[in-house]
Amino acid sequence: MHVHSHGANERTSQVLRVSLIVTAGYIGLLVVAGLRSHSLALLSEAGHNLSDFVALLLSLVAVYFHSRPPSATHTYGYHRAGVLAALLNAAALVGISFLIFYGAVRRIQHPQPVHAGMMMWVAAAGVIMNGAIAFMLYRTHRDVNIRSALLHEIGDTISTAAVIIGGWAILATGQLWIDAALSFGIGALILWSSFGIMRETLNILLEGTPRGMKLARVAAVIQEIDGVNDVHDLHVWSIGSETNALSCHISIADIPPSASERILREVKARLHTDFQIDHTTIQFEHAVCEVAHCCVIPVSDSESNNAVANLTRRK
Ligand SMILES: [Zn+2]
Ligand SMILES: [Zn+2]
Ligand SMILES: [Zn+2]
Ligand SMILES: [Zn+2]
Fold first, then answer.
1. For residue 178, what are the domain limits?
2. Could you tell me if 241 and 116 lie in one domain?
3. Minimum mean pLDDT range among 92-101, 226-235, 268-277
4. Burial class of residue 182, CB neighbours in 10 A (0-12, 13-18, 19+)
5. What is d(CA 218, CA 239) in angstroms, rounded to the nearest whole number?
6. Ligand with minimal distance to 237 CA
7. Residue 2 forms part of a structural domain
8. Does residue 105 sit in the same domain as residue 178?
9. Considering its fold, how many domains does the chain have in total?
């Protein structure tokens, strides 16, 4: 049985839908105000919020796919549809940030007068909007996606506040390069967040060990369980951003299935509580195992010595 919490999905998608509508309105405001005030910082913010809009849309799609049951043709369900879409979005973000850098360099070469007052008003509206979305996200069920969305909104609130300060600085000093400098900052922020998304999504798509999980630690926890002689051919990967899977071989004594059932139950319980791994495929062995494929993880000398010590202690 697989344990998923789908109960909070309805509320989450409601918050995401409201955020989508508000963000779309704000993008329109940014484009109009950016063009009229000649502020590249506002246009950069429009690019940034457009990417946020796509990201929110993807989260909504991911929530939808997550609630779709597995089928005979997609036996794991559709968890990775959202992961793949997030990777594509991150790639688009890199493109947007380079467009902003290019625009900022041109602005420094050919400065244009900006309407700093309008900049400040529009940014103030942005601070209120980002703050409100952050507050709504804070109050929903928080999985990995929602938590990163919340962090992102908090970062956005701060960066939009920086635009207000920048507008004030332009008013006070008349230095036009401040607008281009703000654009560089916004571009760098977009680039940084897109690299984070890429690292995380690529790790899932390349079947990497889930972030923050140590394979040696997983092996050690299984080894600790009474009745387990050895664990090998151990694989841990993520199906989606919330679902971890594991497969392994476990050597046990020559005991009947009615007795080995207890070992299996304990292994599954430990994997669930210690590592949130709910999808397990465990193969019990007694005779010597011939691993047909070459995927046995090289264990460092000290660790294999420990394993040997464990084995001898049990016998
Ligand atoms: Zn953002
Ligand atoms: Zn294998
Ligand atoms: Zn399963
Ligand atoms: Zn084996």
1. 9-205
2. no
3. 92-101
4. buried
5. 18
6. 2
7. no
8. yes
9. 2
